[in-house]
Amino acid sequence: MESEVITSRKIIYPGDIIGIIGEGRSSVQLVATAKSMGFKVATYVTSEKNGVNQYADISFVGSIHDGEKLQRFAERCKIVLYESELIDIKTIQYLQQFVSIPQGVKLLELNQDRILERATLEQTGIKGTPYVTVVDLDDLYESINEIGYPAILRPILKDAMTEKELILKSEIDIPKASVLLERGTYMLQPVMTGGKEIAVSIVKDQNNRQKMFPMVENVYENHFLKETKVPVDLDSKVQNSVLEAATKIAGLVEYVGIFSIVFYVDGEDIYFEQLIPGIRDEQNVFNLASNTTVYEEMLRALSGMMISDIRLQVPTIMLNITDEQMKKIKTQWLIKSNWHFHFYPQVDEADAKQHIGYILADGDDVKQIQEQIDNTDIW
Q1: Angstrom distance (rounded) from CA 89 to CA 80
Q2: Which architecture, in CATH terms, is 196-374?
Q3: pTM for the whole thing?
């Protein structure tokens, strides 16, 4: 007989223990924000090297399959939250036997199956970026004629172990996909160019009330997030269409906390790209740009508090920093009065291209900030 899932919604007060499972970069800021709000924090990570544990009141280190340790962790907490979309669903379902997890798993289930995600979104009438499913190399050789180059190969089922992608720039790259396709079915999509990636972050509380953060534009270089800008440079009609689409999609979502909806906008055409539970790096732009942060609103929603009315306070660009940029960054450290520097706790020796932190640059308008950034010749 299956154990009962704890689904009751609880009010969490200062002094209560909130559990955080996950070891992404967001965890440290979640812990810090929770403690500043008066909560005590228990963390569960899989490696002693993970720096988040040093900030917690109680820490657990163990496998995501260690039922006994997971139960001990759950029973110490009033609620548990996950910070990443790549958490194992079975782990969350197991924890639900012992503790309330207000975020639930329904959005995770949707997010971790790209075909299910697309099928659900079709209910809204919002179009998604084109794709075909691919099961082997023969499929891929045939499908690339429909999609064209450059293309991106993504696994249909997402998790931390299989979330490997491959960019196909020409037919020479196709054999590289053989190892990936041995792991499961993949989705082949065109690499969209000429438009903009626009993301809308939403917080939904336990009473199904929701608030939206200002939409942002994400800019990539070699498929890595380079910068995030707010406010966006879009025609007001297109902005309204994006907000209308985001509102429709959010109405389908059974979830409490922070989630984001990503669109690709090309002129007046709007395409759905992703629906993502939890906190993403790009949302750090709100640490300066708005009157509240995604970390605070996540915790307000999950603890039963009223969520905030969210306002843009200052135009801001967030710039990701890599280790190889540090020499030039040190010069800007001394001379930029409107640049605010943030560095992640380092767990392992940093790869030269790994993001080690970010800069928040503010100003009178995004174009003026971008010109200042471009003049540094760092990015």
Answers
A1: 14
A2: 2-Layer Sandwich (3.30)
A3: 0.92
Other CB atoms within a 10 A radius of the CB of residue 163 amount to: 13
Q: Average pLDDT, whole number, for the chain?
A: 92
pLDDT at 151 over 90: yes
- 130-190 falls under which CATH superfamily? ATP-grasp fold, A domain (3.30.1490.20)
Written as one letter, the residue type at 9 is R
Query: How far apart (Å, rounded) are the C-alpha atoms in residues 262 and 340?
Result: 26
Instruction: Please give the structure tokens belonging to residue 46.
Output: 């899989």
Contact by Cβ (8 Å): 217, 229: yes
Question: What pLDDT does residue 177 have?
Answer: 95
Q: Is 224 exposed, middle or buried (0-12, 13-18, 19+ CB in 10 A)?
A: exposed
Domain edges within the chain: 17-101, 130-190, 196-374
pLDDT digits (tens, 9 = 90+) for 325-348: 999 999 999 999 999 999 988 645
**Residue corresponding to tokens 């994400």:** 218
* Residue 94 confidence (pLDDT) above 50: yes
Report d(CA 144, CA 127) in Å as an integer.
21
- Of 140-154, 288-302, 347-361, the range with the lowest mean pLDDT is 347-361
